[in-house]
Amino acid sequence: MSKYLGIDLGTANVLIDVKGEGIVLNEPSVVAINTNNNDVVAVGKDAYMMVGRTPANIKAIRPLKDGVIADFDITEKMLQYFIEKLNVGGRFSKPTIMICAPTNVTPVEQKSIIEAAEQAGGGKVYLQLEPKVAAVGAGLDIFKPQGNMVIDIGGGTSDIAVISMGDIVTSQSLRFAGDKMTGAIQAYIKQHHNLIIGERTAEQIKMEIGCVMDADESKTFSASGIDIVSGLPKEITTNEVEIQEALSDGIDQIVIAAKNVLEQTPPELSGDIIDRGIMLTGGGALLKNLDKLLSEKLQVPVLLTDSPLDSVALGTGVLLDHIEKHQKY
């Protein structure tokens, strides 16, 4: 009997949910390649440890960009590695897979995602849109004739959608999400402190003192990098106030997109959203006071889901259950 796998193929992380077992894998979407012979040196956590620290012949690659596949071959190798690691395939049975994509994904990109999953060892492969799956994983009943709104801020995309009766009514997808936030912090530190910091350092700053409202100047982070002027190693101290400033332009984009989605929502569903609130999920949802800021700007209650990082993977598991029970969704 084949296994059922739900895969959150994220720009930053890959999460896999196995039916009956829950989320069994959560690893960075990174593959280290030996450029001399194109052999895979490391995948996931081991490869992430190499980012910014490899010799010339080893390249740490993120094969997904803005929520879609940028390097098909490397994505296939990464998925194959993770699926084999779980030991869910068999000689005569391949796992049934559900995999997710952003709302603005093109038909060509959809096909490449499905093909990558099939080539990596999948049997029947289903593709679902991320905000729909995230809403299910966050505990919303999207199958009733009522409005549910979700803001899912991942690594590559921020997906905003209103869902009713199991389908998306109106949506918008932005290429500003976790990775661009990290880049914005790098750019800010370079401009204001004359310091070049690595991607991993910027990501750590984001996770530890990332803030979008009511920043606390006393919350600080010591960052090391290369001084632009001298070219020598240097350490500086940044704080929540600076990081709030670094992220402000990008967060404004998310607010504007959410307003656009609300403006396009039918009045009856808008009433449901006012009553039920907006569900905030994804890794970016963990930024300090983001729920508070969105609620203030949108004039609608905003609720942070219990497990923002896991919502998409958990949602795939629920939707695969519907498929197995032959329920239409």
TrEMBL record:
UniProt cross-references to InterPro entries, sorted A to Z: ATPase_NBD, MreB, MreB_MamK-like
Q: List ligand-binding residues for ATP.
A: T11, A12, N13, G155, G156, T157, E203, Q204, I205, K206, G283, G284, A285, L286
From the Swiss-Prot or TrEMBL record, what is one GO molecular function term? ATP binding
Keyword RNA-binding listed: no
Q: Where does the record say this protein resides?
A: Cytoplasm
Keywords tagged on the record: ATP-binding, Cell shape, Cytoplasm, Nucleotide-binding
Which GO annotations describe the biological process of this protein?
Answer: cell morphogenesis; regulation of cell shape
Give the GO cellular component terms, alphabetically: cytoplasm
Q: How does it assemble?
A: Forms polymers.
NCBIfam families given in the database record: mreB, PRK13927.1
Q: Which family does it belong to?
A: Belongs to the FtsA/MreB family.
- What is the name of the protein in this document? Cell shape-determining protein MreB
